[in-house]
Amino acid sequence: MTGPAIGGRAPGAVESVGGSGSRAAEPKRRRHWGAPWAWIVFIIGALYFLVPLLATFEVSMRAKPLFAAYTNSFADPGFFSSLIYSFVIGLITIVLSIALIVPTAYWVRLRAPRLRPIVEFVTLLPFVIPPVVLVFGLIKAFSRPPLPLTDSDLGSSALLVFAYIVLSLPYMYRAVDSGLRAIDIRSLTEAAQSMGAGWTTILIRIILPNLRVALLSGAFLSLAIVIGEYAIASYLVRPAFGPYLSLVGANRAYEPAAVSLISFGLTWLAMIAIAVIGRGSRTRVQIGGAR
pLDDT value at position 250? Predict the structure, then answer.
């Protein structure tokens, strides 16, 4: 009686080896381009975004001679002055919003989580209170002592910044809160405190670098709100871009379309510049001992 051979292969061993070799010899699969419905949604969204821009460009090109609407817009001194004013106000709004919201959201998530529903409710109030009601309340409150801010240009500009901070609260707070949710702030804080860091150092050198993407998202939305806002700047009689665009639209035919496209392009360039500046200085935050 013959026993099984020593070192004999298991049944199907050759087949399994041959199968793996055949799979390796198979040609690479074609690149997967996604589901057709996803491309349909993408195309519809792109058309929804691009068709109004193309229609606006077509209207601006009706002026004679060719590109006259754009040359007239660039020749108008009020165009650049109002746009620069709105950009400066927007940057100040972004900086002050970050200085206000980041410590608040950080402290609420770290030390006072029970206050989070109240803070979220307060940040959602700009969706409920119309800008017209907000600006009338600000004028009523700050047009007389002890803080008559509307009596001077600087005070009115400061009041405009405060109003824009209120308008940007829902977007900036949601962006910062999402960024804080994505990191372990408790472990970072405890590790930093064990190394002797104070609260200011923790916020500036640890929390803010980890919130770079979230802060950029909030900054984009805040800048877009400031550039296109009309009611508050108009009632405060500020030389912002929104009132200027409304004035041009009431007095000229084709220049408003050109101004809209120019401001759209400049706003996107400003957002790209903010993104490049924010992402260019990448700082790796590491807390721990020697490796």
Answer: 78
* Preceding omega of 146 cis (within 30 degrees of 0): yes
Query: Is residue 287 within 8 Å of residue 206, measured between CB atoms?
Result: yes
Gap between the Cα atoms of 173 and 124, Å rounded: 10
Which amino acid makes up residue 119? V
| Polymer length of the chain | 291
Ranges of H-type helices in the chain: 13-25, 36-60, 68-75, 77-110, 116-123, 125-128, 131-141, 153-181, 185-194, 199-202, 208-210, 212-228, 231-235, 241-251, 255-280
Instruction: Provide φ and ψ at 249, rounded to 5°.
Output: -65, -25
Q: Which residues of the chain have pLDDT under 70?
A: 1-34, 277-291
DSSP type of residue 32: P
Yes or no: say if 231 and 243 are a contact pair by the CB < 8 Å rule: no
Cα→Cα distances 153→159, 160, 182, 188, Å: 10, 10, 42, 44
**pTM higher than the cut 0.85:** no
Tokens representing residue 291 in the block: 């490796």
Asked if 94 and 223 count as a contact pair (C-beta separation under 8 A), the reply is: yes
Give the C-alpha separation, 241 to 231, whole Å.
11
Closest CA to 134 of 264, 62, 233: 233
